[in-house]
Amino acid sequence: MDTMPSIIVKLKHAVIRQVQLPQGDLSIGRRPSHALVLEDAAVSADHASIFTVGQDSFLKDLDSTNGTYINNRRTRKHHLKPGDEIVIGKYTLLYQDHDMAPVTTPQPAAFDDAALFVLSGFNSGKRIELTSTVTHLGMAGQSAALLSRTGDRYTLMIGPDAAHVAYNGKSVAPGGQVLTSGDIIEVGDTRLQFYQH
Question: Is the pTM of this model over 0.70?
């Protein structure tokens, strides 16, 4: 007997729930009427859907503001394969084609598992790997903001050439702001999302 495909929903490395994918459509978004509600400001009211036929599932982004990422690439439509990681806001959805007990022990974040996704502005859609101790953000030759890494923690700080720098729509404190996966950063006209696996 075939088992139904499912997704494991994770937030900050912690498994929240496992969802069996029904035949037909499973809607995802911030609106309470969706089958899978993700409560995060970076998630659109109507964000995405997963359509399942037999053992095959297809993800579709519903013109969301901040996009849907599969295996670190912004995607509009995708035929899901076992092991695919879907990132929507602060949430990670792990697709599998069988039932599996949720993993209870989160894996520690590795340095090379942190990145910035450019949501809008110059280089929109680009992924920026955070591999340095300090990463400067801003136009070439300028440092409007910077990300400082200490261990597996990343802190957003205002740089010497700062214009408009914001964190989740708020001003950045003088001492900096420690980031969590899914946070939205604004530097000038550019919006970025921090992601840490």
Answer: no
